[in-house]
Each structure stands twice: as C-alpha cells, then as structure tokens.
Amino acid sequence: MKEFSYVITDELGIHARPAGLFVKEASSCECDVKIAKGDKEVDAKRILGVMGLGAKQGEEIVLKCDGADEDAAIEKLAAFLKENL
User: Fold this and answer.
1) Is residue 15 annotated as a catalytic residue, yes or no?
2) pLDDT at residue number 40
3) Which residues of the chain carry a pLDDT beneath 70?
4) Are 33 and 45 in contact (CB under 8 A)?
5) Which of 27, 31, 47, 74 is most enclosed, with most CB atoms within 10 A?
C-alpha cells in the first residue's frame, strides 16, 4: 500500500469540477484507491464519496492506493492533486 498526504490549497476545497476529474483519474487505476480526511475514508472512484468528505482549503487528506499498479497510481493521482487542488 502506498500513501500520499496532501493539504488542500484550492480556496473552494474539493468542489464538483475537480472532484469529477479526480474520480475519472482514479477510476482508470486498477488498484483500490481511497481518500481519507480525519477518520472518514471513502472510495476515490465514487463521486459522492469524494464530495462527501467536504475537504476545505487548509485541510489534510490522505490518498491510499493498494494493488497491482499502486506505484503508478499514487504518482499520477498525487500529481493531479498538486496541479488541481
């Protein structure tokens, strides 16, 4: 399992447009992809779960990838977070 911690910098937090794009990226990965904020963890391949986190600017999320392509997935999704959120 690979993990990546990230603090949201977008002033709107995780909102609909980037959340939809993130779910699309996560869905292209073979491995399981989860996002956690505090003690709540959701499937990153489901838009309602990602939006349900309610992650705001300045809050830390933890991305977790576990499976066959976890190395490539964590790199791709970490880059997406840095560029878009």
Assistant:
1) yes
2) 95
3) none
4) yes
5) 74
Q: Could you tell me the sign of the dihedral formed by the alpha carbons of 43, 61, 17, 73, in that order?
A: negative
Query: Which residue of the set 15, 49, 80, 84 is catalytic?
Result: 15
Q: 57 near 12, Cβ under 8 Å?
A: yes
Token pair 């489901």 in the structure block, residue: 46
Sheet bearing 2-7, strands edge to edge = 2-7, 60-66, 32-37, 40-43
What's the angle, vertex CA 27, arms to CA 64 and CA 4, rounded to 5?
A: 20
Read off the tokens for 59.
């809050």
**Burial of residue 63, with CB atoms counted within 10 A of its CB: 0-12 exposed, 13-18 middle, 19 or more buried:** buried
Residue 28: the pLDDT is 94
Residue 30: the pLDDT is 94
Q: What is the distance between the alpha carbons of residues 29 and 77, in angstroms, rounded to a whole number? A: 10
